[in-house]
Amino acid sequence: MSDRYDVDRVRADFPVLARTINGYPLTYLDSANTSLKPRPVVDAMSDHYLFHNANVARAMHTLGAEATAGYEGGRAKVAAFIGAATPEEIVFTKNASEALNLAANTLGAGLGVGDEIVITVMEHHSNIVPWQLVAERTGATLRWFDITDDFVLDLDKARAENLINERTKVVSFTFVSNVLGTVNPVNELSAWAHSVGARVVVDASQAVPTLDVGPISDLGADLVAFTGHKMLGPTGVGVLWGRADVLASLPPFLGGGEMIAVVEMTGSTYAEPPYRFEAGTPPIAEVVGLGAACDYLTAVGRSAITAHEADITGYALDGLRALEGIRILGPSATIDGLAVNRGGAVAFTVETADGLDVHPHDVMTMLDSRGVAVRGGHHCARPLHRRLGVTASTRLSPYLYSTRAEVDRLIEALTWTRDFFGGKR
C-alpha cells in the first residue's frame, strides 16, 4: 500500500470509529453489508433538509428549484462517477434490489414459454428471486452457471451444456460476489450473451464502491444495478444504469406522478427515461447524499481506495490462513501481501481443534463482545452456501477506512472464540 494513502485522515471523517463496544475499540469489518457514512455526506443531507427542502419538478418556487437542482445535480455526479455517457442513463430506485426488480419486470414483459433466463449460483437473493418470479409468471425457464472448486464460474461446464443459446433472452450476474469475493469476467459474459441476442444485467453492488468501473458502457452490459449505502451514501437510494437505447425500449415499472407525459381516463403516455422509471416523490435528500458520497470517493481517489482494500484484504487472508480450523470460502491467493483478483468480502467457517463447527451466529456474537463487527449467516446467498456444503459462514469486509490493526484485533478475537468453543479457557 502506498505511503501516500492517509487512512488516519480518512478515518477522522467517520465519528463512529471513535466508539468503544464493551470497552473495546469499534472494529467495523462489515462494509459489504453497509458502509459507514462520512461527515460530508451527512452534512449534505442535513443542509438539504434544513435549507432547501421541497419536492422536485412540481414546486414552482425557489425551494422547489433548489431541491430539483440538488436532485439532478446528484444524478449528474453519479453519472460522472461511473462514466455514464449522460445523466439520463441514471435511474434512481430505493436500493439495488428495486433496480434489479425493475430490470427483471421490464425485460420480463417480453418473455414467454420457451425463453430462457440465465443467472449464476453465486447470486445475491436480489438477483435470484426477481427472475424466479418472472419465470413463474411468463413460463420462461431459469438456468444458472455453476462454480468450480476454485470458486469461479464454471465456464467450461456452461459451454458443454450450451447454457447460453438461441433461447436465452436475459443473462444476469454479479460483478463481484458478496460471499466469495470472486470477480466475474463481465466483458466475456456480456459478449457471449450478446452473441445470441440476449440482454445483460449486472449486479455491481460490490464493485462500484471500490473498483473504477467507468466508462460503464465499456463493461458491455445493457443494465447495471448498484446501491448507495455500500459506497458511503445513505440507505434508501439505489441506481440502475442503462444504455440509452435499452432504457428507451423498456416499459414503465411503476405508475404514478412524474413518470407520465399525459394522463387521460382512457389511457396514458409516458415520460422519456429516466423519469419513466421514477414514479412518485423520489429519494431527494438521499440522492443529494449519494452525490456527496461520489464527491468524497473521487477526492480520496478510486485507484487509492482499490489498492488500500487489496492491502487490507490480503493482510486478512494471510492472517486467516495462519489460523487452524479456518476455511476460507473464496479465492485466497495473495501476492506481495495484496489480495489477487478478488473483492474485499471474505467469508469463512470456524472449526475447533476437536472438530466442532462453530455456528457463524455464535462467532459473530463472540466477536461483537470484543468490539469486532462482522456478519454471520448466509449473506442473502443461501443457494451458494448449499453449493459449498455449508449452512452459513462468517464474513469480514473492509473498506477505505479499515486498518491492519483492526485485522489484528479480528484475528485475536477469532482465535479466542475458536479456543473458547474448543474447550480452552
Explain what the structure shows.
There is one protein chain. The protein has 425 residues and is α/β, with parallel strands linked by helices. Helix content is 36%, strand content 18%. It has 13 helices and 20 strands. The chain has helices spanning 7-11, 39-51, 62-82, 96-108, 129-138, 155-160, 186-194, 244-249, 284-300, 302-321, 360-369, 382-388, 404-421, and strands at residues 20-21, 24-25, 27-28, 90-93, 116-120, 141-145, 168-174, 199-203, 223-227, 238-242, 260-264, 267-270, 326-329, 334-335, 338-339, 346-351, 357-358, 372-373, 375-377, 393-396. The chain has a seven-stranded mixed beta sheet with strand order 4-10-9-8-7-5-6, with helices on both faces. Strands 13, 16, 17, 19 and 20 form a five-stranded antiparallel beta sheet that branches. Strands 1-2 form a two-stranded antiparallel ribbon.
**Any idea what the CATH architecture of the largest domain is?**
3-Layer(aba) Sandwich
State the name of the first-level CATH class of the largest domain. Answer: Alpha Beta
CATH superfamily of the largest domain: Type I PLP-dependent aspartate aminotransferase-like (Major domain)
Q: What kind of sheet is the major sheet?
A: 7 strands, mixed
How many domains? The number is 2
Average pLDDT confidence is 96
Measured between the Cα atoms of the first and last residue, the distance is: 37 Å
Structural class assignment: alpha/beta
Helix content: 25-40%
What share of residues are in beta strands? 15-25%
Number of helices: 13
Computed CA radius of gyration, to the nearest angstrom: 22 Å
Overall spatial form: globular
- Output the CATH topology of the largest domain: Aspartate Aminotransferase, domain 2
- The low-pLDDT segments are none
- Identify the strand order in the major beta sheet: 4-10-9-8-7-5-6
